[in-house]
Amino acid sequence: MKYIRIFLLYFQQAFVYRGRSVVWFFISLFNPLILLLFWYAALTGGKTTVSWSLSDVTAYYVLLIISASFLDIHIEETVAVYDISEGGLNAYLVKPISYALVKLCNELPYRLLQGSFGIIVFCIIRFGLGISFSLVNGIFEIITTVCMILCAFCVSFLFKMIVGLSAFWTTDYTGLAEMTGVLILLFGGFVIPLEFFPSFWHTVATYTPFPYGTYFPVLAVEGRLALGEMWRIIGIQLGWIFILGVTYRWMWKRGVRLYTGVGI
Q1: Over the stretch 15-44, which tens digit does the pLDDT of each residue have?
Q2: How do the domains of the chain map onto residue ranges?
Q3: DSSP secondary structure code for residue 86 in this structure
Q4: CA 206 → CA 169, 213, 215, distances in Å?
Q5: Which of 88, 161, 165, 167 is 20 to 30 A from 222, alpha carbon to alpha carbon?
Q6: pTM given for the model
């Protein structure tokens, strides 16, 4: 009987954190579903099968390693758990400094360190294993690609800061964090390139901020985007930076009013 009671207590706990269970289900759902969409498009001869060779695919995933190490921001846990839930935010509220800029300084060393690891892996694959593939060339294309990468970093950083600030209104932010993680994997091009998506889902992805944080910068570095297309994408990135920046300011101002700073 006591084990039945223990089971019922944990059953209640599972329903308290039911959002986490929903997210875990979607994680197990989305990856096979995306691969199913890919094979559906490939086997039915859809447009997503064009223009990609084995060399292109190899270059894409190798460059994705570097892109993820530089641009895949992980600041949301620090913001939500250590600062908001555990009360670490107190130290920032009494100082004349920008919280976002401090978190930016916090995250940059990790991105540079992990990015250097990604470059090492790239050099091993490119020069050690002798696997060659094309990269962007031309001075204007290279400068534009660098601009796109910087904008991508801003998009990713602001989005993850917003996810972290959600802890002002929730007792367990992990459900939202894991759900957005699934969307980033899905629409950020981490599972398969968006060009392999059916037309509808490819269009849906381009209306989210996720491909502008990783996918399109990888295509630019790979040299798959024309100069005009790169500037169009930078324009969209700047639009997302504005939207996310305004959202962050709104959440910060209202969230601080709710903050109690008692910790856990």
Answers
A1: 665 555 555 555 555 555 665 666 555 555
A2: 2-258
A3: S
A4: 29, 11, 10
A5: 161
A6: 0.81
